[in-house]
Amino acid sequence: MTSMFQLLIDGESREGSDRIAVDVVNPATGEAFGSVAFASKSDIDETIKVALGGLRSWQAVPPWERGRILKDAAQRLRADFVRIANVITREQGKPLREACIEIERSADFLEWGAEQARRISGRIVPARAPGQRIEVQPHPIGVVAAFTPWNFSMALAAKKFAGALGAGCAIICKPSQETPGSVIEMAKALLEAGVHPAAIAVVFGDANDVSTQLINAPQVAKITFTGSIPIGKRLAAAAGAAMKPVTMELGGHAPVIVCGDVDPEATAELLVHAKFMNAGQICLCPSRFFVEAGIAQRFTARFVELANALRVGDGTDQQTQMGPLANERRVDAIARLVDDARARGATILAGGKRLDRRGNFYSPTVLIDVPDEAAILREEPFGPVAPILPFNDEKSMLERANGLEFGLSSYVFTHDGARQRRLVDALQYGVVGVNGGLTHQPEAPLGGWKESGIDTEGGIEILDPYQITKHVNLQ
Length: 475
Ligand code: NAD
Known about the structure:
The protein has helices spanning 41-59, 63-79, 81-92, 96-117, 155-167, 180-193, 207-216, 229-241, 264-276, 293-309, 328-343, 394-401, 417-426, and strands at residues 3-5, 7-9, 12-14, 21-26, 31-37, 123-125, 133-140, 143-147, 170-174, 200-202, 220-226, 246-249, 254-258, 286-292, 347-350, 365-368, 385-391, 409-413, 431-434, 453-454, 467-474. By secondary structure, it is of the alpha/beta class.
């Protein structure tokens, strides 16, 4: 059955006025199963106009009621998770089990935004002069333009919808056209729950044209993006030229430091799971494995054994542990990184090849003897490849771990309290996982240091990127 993913503007699903649509492909088969409508310039103009009206209506809804509506939407996602998980897996490839977790996490984010909406408050600052009063008022910033990626197409959009709608903003979301269904599902749940129809829009189109038009529109007040560093820099520069604030959640290249005192086999088991979840297409994903030399051989042997044993296949098959990569670009990118490492002398202990079947499959891959000049140690891999790098000297290892422009996530494995503290303190990253894997839970903020981003998402601060302060000075 073919699906038509349409634009969602003012509560109505419709084609683009130029009648342009592009294929949506199932990454497990390589076959198109539907098409997604592209918005024309005039469609985007209209979307912006509608959103401005939506902003006026939605910000007038009391925060307590906005919170009730967002919670209702979260419940709708949970109540329909089996059907929606199939939507996610068909367009993105991840195993159904992981799609279910993504829906649960998306609902968590909407609920968290709902709860924080109910806690919006300003403050009164004691003034210097008698009779004077200073008020600090938070206001919704305005119409938000959100650009969201294909790897966690629902959850990464949910963070932005939760913050923007909780704060009382209208949001225009341009998801990746490769995974259109998941954001549409979430937007529909929000509309059915009672969000003002003009306060939500989902549009697809030529990424450059749509982002340029939205960023430059005077009615759009805030830009939020999750994706790669090069695109983030481009959007942030355009937003800067228009003097608009940005939230940027960008890529990472996470060092994992495994110290000699841990159980090498148990740690390898935990890290194989973290590495190959969503076929490695996770911004927090462990991607450079610094393992202390004394346990490196045992760690590597178990890691390779488990990587080789992973059942790779169509995400709709209940037996599947790792699905396809989300698109052909990623398969090409991973093949290039592995070939480059091999040409520079790396040894491939597992995988290292495309799978000989239809769909975007690349085998879980483990590399050793990777020289520092190899591209895979400098570029974000965003795929199922694990370079294992034994180390003896902590200081020089830390220099390598901190030596890139990335600063999103990092990991430390040791039970030595003093060493744990020292390593956590030394890592120049926005998030550090200690003795475990990482996911983003709404109750804590998450954001990248260095080139990995600007601002955070989640935590009690979840509404902050979508609020603007008015200082009222009463004499
Ligand atoms: P890409 O750089 O072409 O695109 C990254 C994302 O930005 C995609 O979702 C894309 O739809 C969107 N995009 C592209 N051009 C845009 C524009 N002009 N305006 C607005 N949005 C635009 O790379 P890709 O091949 O799609 O993805 C691979 C890279 O993206 C990876 O290397 C990884 O770094 C990064 N990525 C990061 C995250 C994250 O969660 N931080 C998520 C997805 C992708």
